[in-house]
Specification:
With 354 residues, the protein is of the alpha+beta class. It has 8 helices and 17 strands.
C-alpha cells in the first residue's frame, strides 16, 4: 500500500525530495499537470471531468510530505556527531534509536552516557539534546562519511502488528494495526493519492507541502499559489487512548479504531462550520465512523491556508495514531480507510454554499 512506501521514505523537513519523487511516480497516471514550486511543494491538478455548467470550483486538498528529524551540526574529532532537532520531540524516546543520515543513508545510533555512569542528580532529569550524540562507528572526524548540514531520520521500517503476515502481492488490508515512522503526515499523503484516482465536478488541486514541522512554511506559499475556493487538510493526529495512571480516569480522544477525527478548533485555526457540518452529515449518512479531535491543541497546515489571500474556507480530517513524532507510531488501518471514504464521499457533495 502507498502508506508503507511513504512511511519508509526519507523526508525530513527541507529534504523532502525522496518523498516527492515517489508521489510523482504514483500520481502521474491521474495528473493533468504537475508542478514543483521553489519551496519544494508539489502541485498535482486533476481537472473537472463531469461537465459542470459553471466555471469549475478549485478545491485544494493538502498533506505535508516532511517528517521530524535531525540536522548534523558538528563532527567531533573522535567521529561522534552532534545534532539539532528538526521539529518537536520528546527527548525521552531518543536514546539508543537507530538512524539513517544524509543522501547515502549512513546508519547511526543516538548515544548518551550510560545509566551505570550517571550520578543521582543526572538520573532524576531528562537529558538535553546537547548531551546526546550520534555514533556512526567512526573513530575519527575523517572517517564519518557524513557532512555538517546532513539531515537524519529514524531507520524504522513499516510493519503489520498482530502476528499475521501480509503477502507482498496481496491487496492492502483494510483492518488491523500497523507501525512505522513518519505517519505524521505520510498518512495524509497516502489518502490524497487515493483521492486522485477519482473524477470530480471541480478542479482538484492536490498539494503535497513541505516544511510543516518547522513552522508551516510550505503551506503559506502553496495556498497563495493555488488560490482555492475551499480547502481540506489531511493529517495524522495524536491519539489519546492509552491507559491512565488512575484506572478511574476516562480515556481521552481521539481513539484508535473510532474513525477519522474532524477538527473543530486547534491552537491556530477554527474550522469552517459549513465544511464541518458537511463532513459530519456525510459520515452519518454513509455509515462511516468518525470522531472529533480534542479541541484547542496542535496545529496543521490549515493555520496558513485558511488566511491566504482573502481567506479560504477550510476543514481538517485526521487519522489518529499513537506515539507520533517518535521512532515508531501505531495506527488502525480501519481509521485510514474510513478517512479515505469520508473525504471521497464529502467531495461528491461539492460545490456547496459557504
Amino acid at each position: 500500500m502507498y502508506l508503507e512506501k511513504l512511511s519508509n521514505a526519507f523526508g525530513v523537513s527541507g529534504s523532502e525530495e525522496n518523498v516527492r519523487d515517489m508521489i510523482v511516480e504514483i500520481a502521474k497516471p491521474y495528473a493533468d499537470e504537475w508542478q514543483v514550486d521553489t519551496m519544494g511543494n508539489l502541485f498535482i491538478t486533476r481537472q473537472a471531468r463531469r461537465g459542470s455548467k459553471t466555471p469549475a470550483q478549485r478545491v485544494m486538498v493538502t498533506a505535508h510530505m516532511d517528517e521530524v528529524g535531525f540536522l548534523i551540526s558538528k563532527i567531533n574529532n573522535d567521529g561522534l556527531l552532534k545534532f539539532e532537532t528538526i521539529g518537536g520531540f520528546d527527548k525521552r524516546v531518543l536514546l539508543g534509536k537507530s538512524l539513517v543520515i544524509g543522501k547515502n543513508r549512513i546508519p547511526g545510533v543516538i548515544g548518551l552516557k550510560p545509566i551505570h555512569l550517571l550520578d543521582h542528580t543526572e538520573r532524576q532529569s531528562v537529558p538535553s539534546i546537547k548531551s546526546m550524540y550520534i555514533d556512526v562507528g567512526a573513530n575519527s572526524k575523517g572517517g564519518t562519511k557524513v557532512n555538517i548540514g546532513d539531515s537524519a531520520t529514524f531507520s524504522t521500517q513499516f510493519g503489520y502488528l498482530g502476528g499475521t503476515p501480509v503477502e507482498a502481492d496481496s491487496p492492502p488490508p483494510k483492518q488491523g494495526r500497523v507501525k512505522g515512522k513518519a505517519f505524521d503526515d505520510r498518512v495524509g499523503c497516502a489518502i490524497l493519492l487515493e483521492l486522485l484516482k477519482d473524477e470530480y465536478d471541480f478542479d482538484l488541486i492536490a498539494v503535497f507541502t513541505v516544511q510543516e514541522e518547522i513552522g508551516i512554511r510550505g503551506a503559506k506559499v502553496a495556498a497563495y499559489r493555488a488560490n482555492p475556493d475551499l480547502a481540506i487538510i489531511l493529517e495524522c493526529t495524536a491519539a489519546d487512548d492509552l491507559p491512565r495512571p488512575n484506572e478511574e480516569d476516562e480515556v481521552g480522544i481521539p481513539r484508535l479504531g473510532d474513525g477519522p477525527a474532524i477538527t473543530i478548533m486547534d491552537r491556530t485555526f477554527i474550522a469552517n462550520r459549513s465544511l464541518v457540518d458537511l463532513l459530519t452529515e456525510t459520515a452519518i449518512n454513509e455509515g462511516i465512523p468518525y470522531q472529533f479531535k480534542r479541541p484547542g491543541i496542535g496545529g496543521t497546515d490549515a493555520k496558513e491556508i485558511h488566511i491566504a489571500r482573502s481567506g479560504v474556507p477550510s476543514a481538517v480530517v485526521s487519522v489518529p495514531a499513537r506515539y507520533i513524532h517518535a521512532p515508531a507510531a501505531v495506527l488502525d488501518l480501519a481509521d485510514f480507510w474510513h478517512a479515505v471514504e469520508l473525504v471521497q464521499a464529502t467531495l461528491e457533495h461539492l460545490p456547496i454554499e459557504i
